[in-house]
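Collaborator request, handled under Task 6.
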Amino acid sequence: MKLRIALLVFFLSISCREAVQSQPAERPPRQGAVTIPATVSAQRRTPIVVVAHDVLPAVVNIQTEATIRRRTRPTFDPFGLFGPGERSYTSQSLGSGFVWSSDGIIVTNNHVVEGASRITVNFNDNTKLPAKLLGVDPDSDLAVLKVEGKSFPAAPIGTSADLMIGETVVAVGNPFGLSGTVTTGVVSALGRSVPSETAGRTFTDFIQTDASINPGNSGGPLLNIEGKVIGINVAIYAQGQGIGFAIPVDRAKKVIQDLLRYGEVHAAWIGAVTATLTPEEAQRLGHDIQRGALVVRVFADSPADRAGLRAGDIVTAVAGRPVDSRESFSTFTSTVAANQPLDLSVNRGGSPRTVQVRPSDPPSDLGLRILLEVAGLRVADERRAVVIDDVLSSSRAADIGLQPGDVIVGINGREVTSSTDANTELMRGAERSSIVLSVARGRYVYNLTFPMGV
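Structure tokens returned to the collaborator:
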């Protein structure tokens, strides 16, 4: 029985209602790591001590302000003569981040800076600098900031491709506003999928760690024992202890590079939908391969289609890196730039082969194509509503009983009011194993699931 985790992702930021009183100082932060005193013995200079001293100057506290406006009524106005008024107050929040490059590029989580009207970066030596927001990607919960200056102490960037379960990791951040807090633990698991009620979606391929992560740690680095960034702390399991999550740095690299270059993420598209092949599923299907990403759909005229990939193929490696799940396949392919050749190791009918795919930018109407190919629906806009215009015969939608005139009010848990909204939400979920449509007919709304497989 599939374990259903009721997970309330507690995105790690602290809010209060007081406005910031101090003004940012306009001086550069102190350069370099804090020197370990010569009186400290070699036995006390453990690898964790060295990591902490080396990285602390690159870890920052991110302070944001946002103006909240609420409609109010006068205290005494029984007849409503004066109408509603408006009251404003300033909300402040704290989070973590780190220096990605020495020219002042700061990386944090999107939810740390979301809605902020002012962002201040506080360095480890109490230097405060105003920051400019360069770009955000809500789908990966990443944000890139810029502070003016040069030669900032940057954190060394490592790789998450060779992480091992059980290896030591170090988390650094500002939990509860306590700057420069260092905690340690191990990599507990890889490739975790974490549903978020706050964001209304499921984040995939997280690193799970038991290093203590608390409110305010969000956006801080997760490091290996060599002091290199292997992840970005993002969330905790609110109902348990010792369960934290981080975005793998390899996945973050492409997002950050795209945000710096274009101000938005340019997602490379392969055009193949996969599902995780487990040993139980392999036995049911009669496959000798026990783990991998099972191709369940290939879109016509997509890069995967042109490369010869077929539904039923099992992807076992991407560019030599083993694939054991849909999430790992998605991670490896999402870090590739468009038009960059990518070798897939594939098992087809028991025979291994190599398929070279050249990812491209997704077509602008990909979401509506998914709706047509997977569900058999065409839609039209009518008075801020997505109305079903046509139901293909012998389609899944026809089998369910959908009819022209039914209204699609939500896709994958998000409200839609136009075909543009529908296209966007379906493109965002192009790699999902299924799509969920909320369809209204009369006074009732039905949630209908359409598997992406052929």
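The cover message to the collaborator said: "Residues 249-262 form the longest helix (14 residues). The chain has four domains: 14-35+46-72+88-146, 168-262, 272-357, 366-451. Please let us know whether this matches your experimental observations."
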